[in-house]
Amino acid sequence: MNRKIWILNHYAVLPSEYGGTRHYDFSVELVKRGYDVTIFAASYNHFNKTDRIGKERETQKFECIDGVKFVWLKTFPKYRGNGLKRLINMFSYLIAMLKVYPEYEKPDVVIGSSVHLFACVAAYFISKRTGSRFLCEIRDLWPQTLIDMGTISKNHPLAVFFRIIEKFVYKRAEKIIVLLPNSYDYLKQCHIQESKLVYIPNGVNIEFFDKLLEDSSLKLPEDIENDLNVGFSCIYTGSIGLANCMDTVIKAAEILNENEYNIKFIIVGEGAEKARLMDYCRKENVDNVTFYPSVSKRIIPKILDLSDIALIASKNIELYKYGVSFNKLFDYLCARKPVVFACRTSNDIIKAADAGISIEPENPMLMAEAIIELYEMDEENRKAMGNRGRRYIEDNHDIIGLVSTLGKLF
Asked: Whole-prediction pTM value?
């Protein structure tokens, strides 16, 4: 009998949707290796604010994509932003999960994956009631992320509450999967043994990525394609929230716009900061920036292929001393794009791979100067830079290798 793996990830998405597809990518490879994988996620899509379950009386919806089973759970309420409604929605995922799990054949392994820790709590209780093994995956350090981003103080009741939860799940997990290379520097405060941690960062299904690039049936929106085919384009794809610090990108664009460089900024994605940044560009006549809605993950390779360089910006915060594992960064490198990387982190992948220019965060002038340097660079040197990034991904972040590490836990 195939071993049954359950992955509890509130925010999991399909490959045809916008957002990170870590668990879909991992699960496709696990299915190929003979595992039976089910992903339990919320029906309410955090990224595009739509609900996969139209009828209010339905509590769940089943779907199978490429051999991977998805169970969409009805969660309440619908929300925008990061307020109380989102917190309630997180808790409703925990309740929904505990209600529906008896309807399914018991798993051999249950993986509870953050962002939020209620998924880990649900996984623990399900493992106890079914006699399954419990693994915890930490994709975001809560509550430390909220504290370092300035959302809450370290003594806020919510921070205290999540500290209690994280210690609870860390101590009870058989293994803790971490995405950041220096996570132990954080987790040791919870008195967790380092041997309990397993490092499995984000990655790219390189074979699938290349097939999407060659797939002639996948078409880009005409306006994006036209924009990318004219001039020197700096691309950003992904969320536009506080953590992404897109003010750095916009103000760098403003500097270059004033100097009349033939450089364009193309931003593809959604987020709480998007409307404000668009309004700023309108008021300040920053007309070398174009915003586009989020797109299916399937067409990201084609968008990146037509761009010249890619951008990463972040806030200048202590959180990144534990490392970073940005999905978009690995996509950029897989597409052989030189990257301007504005992040203070302990694992500077761009510097390690020699695949772009690393600068300090929240410094628009340095970003503008780095972009000019790449703009004026010989095209062959830019290509060589992009090829080094691709080799780094092949050696360190191919999904096949990452799933081999994961499979050892089963």
From this structure: 0.94
